[in-house]
């Protein structure tokens, strides 16, 4: 929840707000609801539609800001850890080196499609940028065309056209997990059996990319001793205004003017992170980026707009000019960042855009095909002129030594009674590397469960005699499903034991120059003999001389035939491995999780009796 004015889509942002608030904030909540109701009523009284829209936009933004402040202030302080959002930048000596890696590490995959009329293209980036850790620098990527195997060039269009009878290149509309995907669409001719494998295939994708790298990044490390103190480095200065239990208020100033190349570019030069007493990074819960002076200015603007009888171009120009003048006077950047957990130290990192390096590059990328399974006997090379690291690997690999106690402690019990004929109790836990090592050869053993009624005081009473078909235990999915139609009495408690599974994992570190039989490095590719290292039991991670885990690009399994056994696997990395870590499952243990669950009440009015 990052809020700044002016906001043009208050409705979308409001949908993201957390529900509920603490009792101590009930008066603020009531006041806010009353204010919202009055505001909505005042909108109905405005006849001029343009004037009504202007009031709704600015007034809605101010209400959103107030609601966000209330939600963030009233949110319980519960510790939740996150990642270092600057980890990727710390691997490279300069911001420009990160830019070069981003651009030169990009390639395009040809993906299989379930339709004979579609071919999907997936741009693959060396970094994964997800909110809040989006790419730190202003950037733009624009696709222009695809060249087919018959030399024909198909221009990119922003959306697929139903009326265009030819081959089209447009963004994929079906893949939400990879929003950068593109689709080559072949024409559908009614009555003709077409197969896109007989159509000209995409061989290269053309486009252009631009990335703006700042002059430098500088980090200020702050504690409670720094409150009200201004720390300066050359043209950058940071003041820690307040440091609360779960938030930090920061004021930042860059005394040097912005580089002309970014004078009109929206920038977020501040990255604020926090650690608790363990030294781990706390995840963010949101931020407010407006000072009291800015909020007061926009409130005055709203009042001025509300006094108008009708909207006019002259008045619109006046309001816009006042806003531009005011914002131009705001030399400092302010933010109040909230964290999930008690804050011990704060890291304020500043991107210095007083000078920039603008990188433009025309892209002409070959379309590569790497199916997850292939019957090809030769190993296809996939070398890229970049090195990228997997910063999530160290945390992920902690799951290799997951203990029985840790597994049980992480169990989350949830219930669903929307369908009383298929009510469910589910036992879930955060997925870890240990789950990945479990394989498929499970021996669940007994999964006893007994349902009980409750007495007059709501405590557990006697057991209910049930036919076997009244409930089903699925230990592999950690679920109990029961049909209340078949219960002679209403159950109030479920007591039993749910089997969980825990892998014993042996770790070994190997020098890349002295690998055992069955493992071979061919450049940046690790070739694994699956007869000696079965895929269900083994995992491999690579490091280079920096000691960091290299990011895996992709992996391919080479099979003897379409129905034949897997022969070997190839793992491709961004960089040259010098050490390997192997993880082998040596044992699989069943852990019994004893439970007593107070059952949620279902609506039984429509059940057959």
UniProtKB/TrEMBL annotation:
Q: Which UniProt keywords apply?
A: Coiled coil
Residue spans making up a coiled coil are 288-332
What name is this protein filed under? Lipoprotein
Query: Native species of this protein?
Result: Pseudomonas mandelii
Q: What is the lineage of its organism?
A: Bacteria, Pseudomonadati, Pseudomonadota, Gammaproteobacteria, Pseudomonadales
């Amino acid at each position: 929840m990052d809020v700044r004015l002016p906001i043009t889509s208050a409705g979308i942002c409001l949908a993201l707000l957390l529900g509920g608030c603490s009792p101590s904030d009930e008066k603020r909540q009531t006041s806010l609801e009353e204010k919202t109701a009055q505001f909505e009523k005042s909108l109905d009284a405005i006849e001029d539609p343009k004037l009504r829209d202007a009031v709704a936009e600015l007034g809605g933004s101010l209400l959103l800001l107030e609601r966000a402040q209330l939600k963030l202030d009233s949110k319980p302080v519960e510790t939740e850890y996150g990642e270092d959002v600057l980890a990727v930048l710390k691997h490279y000596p300069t911001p420009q080196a990160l830019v070069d890696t981003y651009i030169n590490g990009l390639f395009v995959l040809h993906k299989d499609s379930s339709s004979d009329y579609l071919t999907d293209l997936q741009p693959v980036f060396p970094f994964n940028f997800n909110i809040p850790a989006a790419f730190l620098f202003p950037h733009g990527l624009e696709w222009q065309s695809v060249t087919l195997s018959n030399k024909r060039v198909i221009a990119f269009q922003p959306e697929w056209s139903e009326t265009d009878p030819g081959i089209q290149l447009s963004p994929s509309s079906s893949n939400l997990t990879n929003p950068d995907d593109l689709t080559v669409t072949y024409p559908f001719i009614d009555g003709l059996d077409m197969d896109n494998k007989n159509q000209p295939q995409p061989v290269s994708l053309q486009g252009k990319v631009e990335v703006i790298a700042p002059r430098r990044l500088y980090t200020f490390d702050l504690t409670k001793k720094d409150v009200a103190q201004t720390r300066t480095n050359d043209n950058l200065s940071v003041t820690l205004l307040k440091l609360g239990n779960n938030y930090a208020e920061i004021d930042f100033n860059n005394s040097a003017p912005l580089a002309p190349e970014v004078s009109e570019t929206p920038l977020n030069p501040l990255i604020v992170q926090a650690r608790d007493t363990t030294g781990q990074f706390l995840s963010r819960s949101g931020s407010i980026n407006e000072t009291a002076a800015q909020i007061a200015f926009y409130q005055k603007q709203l009042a001025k707009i509300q006094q108008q009888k009708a909207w006019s171009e002259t008045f619109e120009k006046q309001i816009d000019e006042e806003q531009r003048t005011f914002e131009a006077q705001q030399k400092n950047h302010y933010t109040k960042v909230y964290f999930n957990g008690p804050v011990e130290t704060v890291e304020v990192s500043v991107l210095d855009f007083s000078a920039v390096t603008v990188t433009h590059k025309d892209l002409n990328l070959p379309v590569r095909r790497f199916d997850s399974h292939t019957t090809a006997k030769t190993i296809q090379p996939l070398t890229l002129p970049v090195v990228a690291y997997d910063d999530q690997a160290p945390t992920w690999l902690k799951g290799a030594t997951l203990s029985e106690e840790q597994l049980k402690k992480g169990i989350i019990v949830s219930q669903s009674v929307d369908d009383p004929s298929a009510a469910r109790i589910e036992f879930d836990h955060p997925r870890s590397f240990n789950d990945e090592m479990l394989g498929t050869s499970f021996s669940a053993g007994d999964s006893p469960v007994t349902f009980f009624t409750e007495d007059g005081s709501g405590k557990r009473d006697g057991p209910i005699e049930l036919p076997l078909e009244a409930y089903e235990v699925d230990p592999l999915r950690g679920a109990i499903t029961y049909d209340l139609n078949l219960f002679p009495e209403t159950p109030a408690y479920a007591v039993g034991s749910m089997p969980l599974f825990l892998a014993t994992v042996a770790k070994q570190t190997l020098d890349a120059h002295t690998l055992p039989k069955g493992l071979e490095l061919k450049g940046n590719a690790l070739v694994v003999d699956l007869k000696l290292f079965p895929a269900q039991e083994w995992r491999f991670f690579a490091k280079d001389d920096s000691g960091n885990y290299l990011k895996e690009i992709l992996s391919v399994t080479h099979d003897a035939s379409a129905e034949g056994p897997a022969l070997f696997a190839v793992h491709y990395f961004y960089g040259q491995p010098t050490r390997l870590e192997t993880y082998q499952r040596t044992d699989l243990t069943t852990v019994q999780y004893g439970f007593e669950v107070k059952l949620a009440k279902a609506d039984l009015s429509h059940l057959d009796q």
